[in-house]
Specification:
Layout: H1 2-12, H2 15-24, H3 43-52, H4 58-65, H5 70-86, H6 89-101, H7 109-113, H8 116-124, H9 130-136, H10 141-149, H11 152-156, H12 161-169, H13 176-192, H14 194-204, H15 210-216, H16 222-230
Helix pairs in contact: 3-5, 4-5, 5-6, 9-10, 10-13, 12-13, 13-14, 13-15
């Protein structure tokens, strides 16, 4: 079955898109995705392939996650998501364990943002969340991003506490990808309860990185956004 998937991947490859993706995902020397390689396959095509091969076993998925090409890893993670969504609790436990064993193969933001809230967030929503707090204090940029993006599943279910607490932990993070992720989750909280967001901003907005603040207040009206950005709220 894995050979069939590899053939599908080859058939969807586009060298021109691959060059664009190399730049978009910052794979150059010294950039956060340094050394990553791309085949130029669109996300809809990757999702389509993953759905077709959702019955791959963990050993085969492991081969995808260990692959040098970004799209192989993305398809492997998509397969895990689709497996998780259709599985019972016992099988979900196995998928979560496998995901955590291979979590460091999620070494760019798209490999995190399309996956971790569905699998890790979906599993932890009514369980102990210590692992997210551990990740939030990690030296790994990607684990820190996983810690906050995983809370999206909680936020979608109007459970804001952990998203707010992890946002506070990450307020002083020095990486732009964390600023964007935290701002995005705060914005999602505000879309569901603007009072909760404004309470958080009242405490922290003057000390928040500019990008984080801009993302968080994106849905506010123009005058309110200007007041926050000028520190006049």
């Amino acid at each position: 079955m894995l050979n069939g998937l590899i053939s599908k991947i080859k058939g969807k490859s586009d060298p021109e898109k691959a060059e664009v993706y190399q730049r978009f995902f910052k794979s150059g020397k010294g950039e956060y995705g340094e050394g990553d390689r791309f085949l130029g396959i669109s996300v809809p095509d990757q999702r389509e392939i993953a759905k077709e091969f959702v019955d791959l076993d963990f050993e085969e998925i492991k081969e995808l996650l260990d692959h040098e090409y970004h799209e192989h890893r993305m398809i492997g993670f998509f397969i895990l998501v689709y497996k998780f969504l259709k599985s019972d609790e016992g099988e979900r436990r196995k998928i979560v364990d496998f995901y955590l064993e291979n979590i460091d193969r999620a070494n760019n933001w798209d490999l995190i943002d399309c996956v971790c809230d569905k699998i890790l967030g979906g599993w932890l929503i009514d369980r102990d969340k210590d692992i997210l707090y551990e990740f939030s204090r990690s030296d790994s940029l990607w684990r820190r991003r996983i810690s906050i993006i995983s809370t999206f599943e909680f936020i979608k279910n109007n459970k804001f506490k952990d998203g707010l607490k992890i946002s506070e932990i990450l307020l002083d993070d020095d990486h732009d990808l964390i600023h964007k992720a935290v701002g995005w989750m705060l914005r999602e909280i505000g879309k569901r309860d603007v009072n909760v967001l404004e309470d958080f901003l009242e405490k922290h907005y003057k000390n928040m990185p500019r990008t984080m603040l801009r993302y968080a207040i994106e849905k506010f009206d123009g005058d309110k956004r200007k007041r926050y950005l000028k520190g006049e709220v």
